[in-house]
C-alpha cells in the first residue's frame, strides 16, 4: 500500500467545508421558508447564520497551511483552470465564505452591530469609513439566502468532486462520491444546528425540532441509499474497483467503514431520530425530545460525517490500478 | 515550422540487471534530495527454489500523452511541453500535492528541499542541448532508448517497429510514453 499523500489536515478541511455548507444551507432554507412575510423558523436561521462562516474559515486556513508553499496560495486566485476541481473549489470557497460573512452580519441585531463597531480602536486608519459599514442589512436576508444556495451546494458537493475526479484512484472515481459528500455535508450541518438549538436555554420550540428532525432523517436516508449503490455498483465493476472496495469489504478500513461510519455514524443516529419521531409518524402525538438522546444522535451524525471523510481520503489513496 | 517532436522512451527490461546506475545518475544529474527518487527499478521475484525468476522493470514518469497530473493542477504549474515532456514549473507550484494523487504511476514525490512537487523531467535541460537523459547515457546494459517518436529514422522507432511491446496501466487512459519491450 502506498503512503498517503493527503493526511488529516485534508480530512479536517473536507469535513469543515461540508459542515459550513450544511449549516448555511439549512439556515438559508429556514430564511427562505416564510409565512406572512416572516421566516417560519427564525431562530434556526439566525443560529445557522451565526455559525456558518467559522468551520469553513478554519478549514480553508488548514488547507492553506497544508500547502508546501502556503504563501503562494494567492496563485489559486489569479489562475482559473476549469479542468481542475481544486481551482474551481478555491473560487467557490472564497465566494461562499464571503456570502456567509455578509449573511452573518445581516443577522446581527442593532445592539450587536454597535457593540462590534465600538471595539474598533479610535486611532484605526480609515475608521470613519469602517463605521459607515455599520448598516442594517436585515432586509437582505432572504436575498442572501437565495444567493448562497448554489454556493453552499457547490461547496458541499465539490469536496466529493475533488476526490471523484481523480481517475487514478478507483475508490473515488465515481460520481456517487460527490453526492454522498453533499448529503453528508447537509446532514452534519443539520445535526450541528440540532446541537446548537439544544444547548441554548429557554423553552424548546417543538416545530423547530420537528423540522430539523424531518430534514435530518431524509438526509441520512438519502446518504444510506447512496452508500448502497456505491457498494453494489462497485462490486459489479471492473477488477480495479472491486479491489479498491475490498479495502472496506474485509480490508484494513472495514471496521471504520461499517462500524464507525455506517453503524455508529449513520444507522444508529437514524434509529434514535426515528424513535424520537415515532409519535409523529404514528400520528399519536408530538415528537419526544429527550435531551440526551437528541444530542447523542446529533453528535453521532457529526462524527459519522467526519469518519466518512477519513475513510474516503485514506482508502482512496490506498487504491490504485495494478 | 517543423512538426512538433514527441519524446518517448523504450525500455528493454530483460536486459536490466538491477545495478541502479540509472537511479544514481539521475540523482547526481538532478540534485534529487536523499530519500526520494525520480526513477526506480520495480523488482519482482517469483517461483520456488531452485527454479527462481526475477524481473526488473525500470520506471519513472511516463510523460503521458493525456496526463492526469496536468489536468488536476490548479495553478498550471504542471504542464506539458510541445514535445510531450511533462514538467513542473517550480515557481508556480503551491505544493498542494493534488497531482501526486492523480498520477496513476506514483511517479511524483514531494521535494522537502524545494517544498514543491518533483519528478522525472526526461532531463529536458540535456535534451534541449541535444544530449540524452542521464539515465539513458549511464545504463551499462543498454536497457534504455530515448528519442523522438515522430522521427522515423530514430533508434526508438526501429525498436517499436520490429519488437512487440506493452505500456503500463493503459486502462487509465493517460497514454503513457514508456514502452516496455516484451
Ligand atoms: S506518469 Fe504521472 S506524473 Fe508522469 S505524466 Fe503521467 S500522470 Fe503525470
Ligand atoms: S502540487 Fe504543484 S504541480 Fe502539483 S497540482 Fe499542486 S500546484 Fe500543481
Automatic annotation (TrEMBL), chain A:
Cellular component GO terms, alphabetical: plasma membrane
Keyword set includes Transmembrane: yes
Location (main, coarse): membrane
Domain of life: Bacteria
Swiss-Prot/TrEMBL keywords: Cell membrane, Membrane, Transmembrane, Transmembrane helix
Subcellular localization: Cell membrane
PANTHER family assigned: PROTEIN NRFD
Protein name: Cytochrome c nitrite reductase subunit NrfD
Organism from which the protein derives: Mesoterricola silvestris
Automatic annotation (TrEMBL), chain B:
Record domain 4Fe-4S ferredoxin-type: where: 7-36, 52-83, 84-113
Keyword Chaperone: no
Gene3D superfamilies in the record: 3.30.70.20
Keyword Iron on entry: yes
UniProt KW keywords: 4Fe-4S, Iron, Iron-sulfur, Metal-binding
Entry superkingdom: Bacteria
GO molecular function terms listed in the Swiss-Prot or TrEMBL record: 4 iron, 4 sulfur cluster binding; metal ion binding
Protein name: 4Fe-4S ferredoxin
Pfam family, one: Fer4_11
Annotated source species: Mesoterricola silvestris
Amino acid at each position: 500500500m502506498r503512503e498517503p499523500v493527503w493526511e488529516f489536515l485534508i480530512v479536517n478541511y473536507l469535513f469543515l467545508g461540508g459542515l459550513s455548507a450544511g449549516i448555511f444551507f439549512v439556515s438559508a432554507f429556514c430564511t427562505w421558508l416564510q409565512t406572512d412575510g416572516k421566516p417560519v423558523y427564525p431562530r434556526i436561521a439566525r443560529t445557522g447564520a451565526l455559525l456558518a462562516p467559522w468551520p469553513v474559515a478554519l478549514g480553508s486556513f488548514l488547507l492553506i497551511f497544508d500547502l508546501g508553499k502556503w504563501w503562494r496560495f494567492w496563485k489559486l486566485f489569479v489562475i482559473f483552470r476549469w479542468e481542475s476541481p481544486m481551482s474551481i473549489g478555491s473560487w467557490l470557497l472564497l465566494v461562499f465564505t464571503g456570502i456567509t460573512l455578509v449573511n452573518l452580519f445581516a443577522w446581527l441585531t442593532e445592539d450587536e452591530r454597535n457593540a462590534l463597531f465600538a471595539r474598533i480602536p479610535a486611532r484605526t486608519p480609515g475608521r470613519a469609513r469602517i463605521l459607515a459599514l455599520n448598516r442594517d442589512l436585515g432586509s437582505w436576508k432572504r436575498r442572501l439566502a437565495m444567493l448562497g444556495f448554489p454556493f453552499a451546494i457547490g461547496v458541499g458537493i465539490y469536496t466529493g468532486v475533488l476526490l471523484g475526479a481523480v481517475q487514478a484512484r478507483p475508490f473515488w472515481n465515481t460520481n456517487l462520491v460527490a453526492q454522498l459528500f453533499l448529503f453528508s455535508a447537509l446532514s452534519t450541518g443539520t445535526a450541528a444546528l440540532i446541537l446548537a438549538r439544544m444547548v441554548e436555554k429557554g423553552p424548546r420550540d417543538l416545530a423547530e425540532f420537528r423540522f430539523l428532525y424531518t430534514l435530518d432523517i431524509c438526509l441520512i436516508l438519502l446518504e444510506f441509499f447512496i452508500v448502497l449503490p456505491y457498494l453494489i455498483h462497485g462490486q459489479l465493476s471492473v477488477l480495479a474497483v472491486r479491489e479498491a472496495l475490498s479495502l472496506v469489504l474485509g480490508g484494513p478500513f472495514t471496521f471504520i467503514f461499517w462500524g464507525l461510519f455506517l453503524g455508529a455514524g449513520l444507522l444508529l443516529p437514524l434509529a434514535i431520530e426515528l424513535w424520537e419521531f415515532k409519535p409523529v409518524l404514528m400520528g399519536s402525538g408530538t415528537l419526544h425530545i429527550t435531551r440526551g438522546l437528541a444530542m447523542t444522535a446529533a453528535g453521532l451524525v457529526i462524527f459519522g460525517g467526519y469518519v466518512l471523510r477519513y475513510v474516503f481520503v485514506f482508502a482512496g489513496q490506498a487504491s490504485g490500478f495494478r | 515550422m517543423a512538426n512538433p517532436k514527441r519524446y518517448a522512451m523504450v525500455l528493454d527490461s530483460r536486459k536490466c540487471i538491477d545495478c541502479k546506475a540509472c537511479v544514481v545518475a539521475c540523482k547526481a544529474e538532478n540534485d534529487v534530495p536523499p530519500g526520494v527518487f525520480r526513477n526506480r527499478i520495480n523488482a519482482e521475484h517469483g517461483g520456488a527454489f531452485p527454479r527462481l525468476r526475477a524481473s526488473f522493470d525500470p520506471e519513472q514518469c511516463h510523460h503521458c500523452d493525456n496526463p492526469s497530473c496536468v489536468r488536476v493542477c490548479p495553478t498550471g504549474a504542471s504542464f506539458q511541453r510541445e514535445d510531450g515532456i511533462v514538467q513542473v514549473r517550480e515557481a508556480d507550484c503551491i505544493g498542494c500535492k493534488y497531482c501526486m494523487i492523480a498520477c496513476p504511476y506514483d511517479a511524483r514525490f514531494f521535494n522537502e528541499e524545494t517544498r514543491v512537487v518533483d519528478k522525472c523531467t526526461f532531463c529536458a535541460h540535456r535534451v534541449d542541448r541535444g544530449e540524452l537523459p542521464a539515465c539513458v547515457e549511464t545504463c551499462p546494459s543498454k536497457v534504455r532508448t530515448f528519442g523522438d517518436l515522430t522521427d522515423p529514422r530514430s533508434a526508438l522507432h526501429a525498436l517499436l517497429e520490429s519488437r512487440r511491446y506493452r505500456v503500463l496501466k493503459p486502462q487509465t487512459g493517460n497514454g503513457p510514453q514508456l514502452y516496455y519491450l516484451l
